[in-house]
Specification:
The protein is mainly α and 188 residues long. 88% of the residues lie in helices and 0% in strands. The protein contains six helices and no strands. This is Secreted protein.
């Protein structure tokens, strides 16, 4: 039969080993929890950035229509929105709710149809790049000609709008509303 001193040493050693095991398991769980939080933070940062960009682009359309600006300005907003949608549509598909994805596709379809009808949207990017290169070269006469070409292309787009301005505004507003909801309810 072991004596009291031996039992005390064995019991103390067992408690110490158990304590080390619990500490190690707790540290492992803490690291796993911190990694999960870091992942959620990265996802939230990406999601919120893309949703804010969607709101920003859509607001430009809503504001132009609301201000009853020239149709050329609406055409400019639609072209800019289309270019920007190309950049963030994959992220919306990844992070947006079903309602946000549907609103984006609806706005994108309306814009795309308009730009296809005008036949000028593709060349507009080239003219803008040419204009910027001429400004950088300080060839202001050519830059002025490029600006005139740019305005005429925007006028052609405005002339061929396939929808009334409020239709674009409503589609943009639907995207804004849905993106706001996604931002306010991160679990969507």
């Amino acid at each position: 039969m072991p004596n009291a001193a031996s039992l005390s040493v064995i019991f103390t050693g067992s408690v110490a080993l158990g304590s080390l095991a619990v500490t190690a398991l707790g540290a492992r769980a803490q690291r796993k929890h911190e990694a999960g939080l870091a992942y959620q933070e990265r996802v939230w940062d990406a999601k919120s950035e893309v949703l804010l960009n969607a709101i920003r682009v859509s607001l430009s359309i809503v504001r132009v229509v609301g201000a009853r600006a020239e149709m050329r300005h609406l055409a400019e907003s639609l072209v800019a929105a289309r270019e920007y949608i190309d950049e963030f549509s994959a992220e919306i598909e990844a992070y947006g709710s079903e309602a946000t994805r549907k609103a984006l596709r609806d706005l994108e379809a309306k814009i795309q149809l308009t730009l296809i009808q005008s036949n000028s949207a593709g060349m507009l990017r080239s003219v803008r790049a040419w204009k910027l290169s001429k400004v950088e070269e300080q060839d202001y006469d050519e830059a002025r000609k490029a600006s005139a070409d740019e305005r005429s292309m925007l006028d052609a787009i405005a002339h061929n709008l396939t929808e009334d301005p409020p239709v674009y505004r409503d589609a943009a507003q639907a995207l804004i509303d849905s993106a706001r909801k996604d931002l306010r309810d991160p679990d969507v």
